[in-house]
Amino acid sequence: MEADDHVSLFRFPFKIPTFRGIRKGGVYLSGALYALGFWIFLDAVLYSRYSNASDVHVTFIDWIPFLCSTLGTLIVNSIEKNRLLQGALSSDGGAFGSGVGDLDSSMAWQARTVLFFGFALLAGGLSGSIVVLIIKFLVKDYNTYPTLGMGVNNVLGNVCILLSCVVLWIAQNVEDEYSYSLTL
Predict the structure, then answer these.
(1) Distance (Å, rounded) from C-alpha 68 to C-alpha 122?
(2) What are the pLDDT digits (tens) for 61-88?
């Protein structure tokens, strides 16, 4: 038996990618989803500006959910998973701890708070685009495709950005077999 062969429960006719390959693929998939979401929204903006024959156009109100989703993506993906678990893994940390454990717990609390605000911006961006679709297009009876398509593109763009954020978060924080967490 060679050194590269390892015993596994199942045999597949293909090679399973390593965690490094999965991480790289996840980052690329996330970028593709963000680019797709941006292009879908930009398509609606350009259609509204140059080809739209109706009296409804994409305004700054339509941009606000997109900007919230983008800002939420930046905030969520700037937090490391290790920061979230920092206070729980320290041996000195606790409700009445002092010293380094208390500092770790404080940093973990701050990271969780910032992460909450990031996810709140993402959820607000998606729900805001749905509200814009309902109030601006459906309530005012603009339910024909080219005009309604601007609102649908806004929602689809925000969904793609949300999925991009989730894929990037998972890809960045996946544990591979060669990473070690040393705590003293």
Answers:
(1) 6
(2) 889 999 999 999 999 988 877 777 766 5
User: What are the DSSP calls for the chain, one per residue?
Assistant: --SS----SS--SSPPPPHHHHHHHHHHHHHHHHHHHHHHHHHHHHHHHHT--SS----HHHHHHHHHHHHHHHHHTTS-HHHHHHHHH-SS-SSS--THHHHHHHHHHHHHHHHHHHHHHHHHHHHHHHHHIIIIIITTT--SHHHHHHHHHHHHHHHHHHHHHHHHHHHHTPPPTT------
Beta-carbon count within 10 A of 159 CB: 18
42-52 pLDDT per residue, tens = 998 998 888 87
Residues 77 and 87: their CA atoms lie apart, in Å, by 20
Checking if the pLDDT of 6 tops 70, the result is no
What's the start-to-end Cα distance of the chain, in Å? 39
For 56, phi then psi, to 5°, come to: -100, 130
Are the C-beta atoms of residues 165 and 29 closer than 8 Å to each other?
Answer: no
Highest mean pLDDT among 50-54, 93-97, 126-130, 146-150: 126-130
